[in-house]
Amino acid sequence: xxxxxxxxxxxxxxxxxxxxxxxxxxxxxxxxxxxxxxxxxxxxxxxxxxxxxxxxxxxxxxxxxxxxxxxxxxxxxxxxxxxxxxxxxxxxxxxxxxxxxxxxxxxxxxxxxxxxxxxxxxxxxxxxxxxxxxxxxxxxxxxxxxxxxxxxxxxxxxxxxxxxxxxxxxxxxxxxxxxxxxxxxxxxxxxxxxxxxxxxxxxxxxxxxxxxxxxxxxxxxxxxxxxxxxxxxxxxxxxxxxxxxxxxxxxxxxxxxxxxxxxxxxxxxxxxxxxxxxxxxxxxxxxxxxxxxxxxxxxxxxxxxxxxxxxxxxxxxxxxxxxxxxxxxxxxxxx
Amino acid sequence: xxxxxxxxxxxxxxxxxxxxxxxxxxxxxxxxxxxxxxxxxxxxxxxxxxxxxxxxxxxxxxxxxxxxxxxxxxxxxxxxxxxxxxxxxxxxxxxxxxxxxxxxxxxxxxxxxxxxxxxxxxxxxxxxxxxxxxxxxxxxxxxxxxxxxxxxxxxxxxxxxxxxxxxxxxxxxxxxxxxxxxxxxxxxxxxxxxxxxxxxxxxxxxxxxxxxxxxxxxxxxxxxxxxxxxxxxxxxxxxxxxxxxxxxxxxxxxxxxxxxxxxxxxxxxxxxxxxxxxxxxxxxxxxxxxxxxxxxxxxxxxxxxxxxxxxxxxxxxxxxxxxxxxxxxxxxxxx
DNA sequence: TGTCTGTATGACAACGATTTCATGGGGAAT
DNA sequence: ATTCCCCATGAAATCGTTGTCATACAGACA
Lengths: 335, 335
Fold this sequence. Notes:
The structure is a homodimer.
Chain A: H1 4-11, H2 15-23, H3 30-43, H4 49-56, E1 61-66, H5 72-87, E2 91-96, H6 101-110, E3 118-122, H7 129-141, E4 145-149, E5 159-163, H8 165-178, E6 184-188, H9 194-209, E7 219-221, H10 228-240, E8 247-250, H11 253-265, E9 275-280, E10 293-296, H12 299-313, E11 322-325, E12 328-330
Parallel strand pairs in A: 1-2, 1-3, 3-4, 4-5, 5-11, 6-7, 6-8, 8-9, 9-10
Antiparallel strand pairs in A: 10-12
Chain A binds a DNA duplex through residues 1, 3-5, 13-20, 22-23, 26-29, 32, 47-48, 50-57.
């Protein structure tokens, strides 16, 4: 590998001067600079990032911890975050938990030794903060920027970028109410996910605000997974039991798709017999038939907010400890 | 940060001994080992990965270069590859090209300086090999394992893990033939993607083998993107022009979904009026209605093959230069 | 008892880049 | 002409880890 030493000897200067030319912060004689640049060009020199990271005490990689990269919302987030980071000259390290919480702990233990620039947590788990906080604090003390996307951890001193789950869910319910589609069922993780609970809260509050009761039989708390099969099973079972409902608000587009499939398999028409609203708004929802009405989360905006954090590290203004991205109801065919 | 020096002084030994205890390959007196382990535990020491990487000449990260992480097949691949790597103690660096080829070049320039263990290329672009080969060779010479997933680059000396696109497409066409659904249209990237072209070849060969003509008007070569909107537009236009076809083989599930939406919007029944077969078989296809018949690619098997490469680096048997993963037609409702 | 062998350990160099400290030389000011 | 100052540059230390080389000590055998 061609190193600074090689470049330096080729240009007839010391390694320090080569470094100075690259850094550009210290004055170097124009003639010397030209010689160095020529040598760099000639030898095809590229600074070794690992050595830089060691010397600087931290590298140029940001870890993104996702719940399930196969879900549209996380894939979209990963895409946009990577794009943002790339513009900042940073790399993205992907850790997909796949709904196994032990992996998170394992990662957080290893994290401080990886020389990361930052960690972006975006997992739907209700994390056991009592246990996690010391780990996170240790990481933060070692100069690693930690931030949370989707889940509000600002109370723990962690910069959080969240979407308005309560408002989004309420808007969806209001929309369904406006069409007279009652009763409305809810499906999602409630007990085991802070995000799911927020969406449930929005659903519940909106129902109550419209003078509607919350029927426990129409609240389907799935224990794990936000995937379509969970929605299918929940809706199938409800239909088999003969429960009556005219609409379903799902905590993810995947869940909504599964519910719709269950309805379709029983010969029910969407949205006339039952209407469906999902959460996410990323991916195939535009082209499914019926296309999916959904509470759209702006993953691009979330990614930009993530980018802002790292931009601010380089001298820009420090962003707020908590940033809320609005959720927007996108009305399509399914409701 | 707590370093070997700190551990060494706490245990009353030299840094070298601490390193020896960690490596475990050199004999260390039992009593000394115990003291060192106690010190490690006491101080919460974790070896600095960056320093290790510098010293070793390469790190423990593998880069995955994807075409579009929002597409089911790539997301699934990323998930499984990350899982495999995690089991090997390796980290995944994600580079999403998002169909911008210049990003690939930029990445390959930077790659050698990142201290990567390997690079997994999985982008549908027909890469300009004339230009790329020197870069790839340079990376390979610096000890980085380079391999290609989906695209066969074994002719360029790059270990390739491919799926049987030709066979998969042929099986799909044969299935449609068996149902008497002719003529069959094809949609995908043909000119600008080696993978798309392979699928087209399978389609063409199967048609000819069944004594059917290949109608150029029913071959829709989309210039960019494998996403649903491209399929929607292609199919809409064909239907608007009054072209007659009874089935569509699409080079991705997303394209197929777009085509199906176009058909649905014209009041056509699936599969009775037109049948659809996609490619990929990952994600929502099971729960869309009609559910999607598709040529399923086993991303898990591909990821395991990737894992095998890196396992073989650690002394295992060297795997073949080219490995073919079978594609399997999964028949559901759409065809 | 002396030499030999082998094992356990320490000192030191090296990976590649950056930064601090020191120095030489040229120009300006008196 | 002499002194002063600043600019450009080089030498050397440093980040944390690991491998090489050297050494000290214990046990064995003649």
